[in-house]
Amino acid sequence: MENMNERPKREVVVPGDLLDDKGLRPGSGTYVLDGNVYSSLLGVKSIRSNYVNVIPLSGRYLPQTADTVVGTIIDIGPSNWLVDINAPYPAPLHVNEVPWRVEFGDTARFLKVGDIIMAKILMMDETNKIQVTMNESGMRKLQGGHVIKISYSKVPRVIGKGGSMIQMIKSITDCRIFVGQNGVIWIEGELDNVLVAAKAIKMIDEEAQSSNLTERVKEYMEKTLPAVERADDQE
Amino acid sequence: MDSDIVMVDDKGKRLDGRKADELRPMKIEAGVLPNADGSAYLEIGKNKVLVAVYGPRECHPRHLQNPTKAIVQCKYNMQSYSVGDRKRPGPDRRSQEISKIISEALEAVIQVELFPRASIDVYIEILQANAGTRCAGLTAASVALADAGIPMRDLIPSVAVGKANGHLLLDLNKEEDNYGEADLPLAIIPKTNEVVLLQMDGHLTREEFDTAMKMGVTACHEIYEMQKDALRRRYSVAAEEEQEVDE
Question: Angle B189-B194-B196 (CA atoms, 0-180°, nearest 5)?
Answer without folding.
Answer: 75
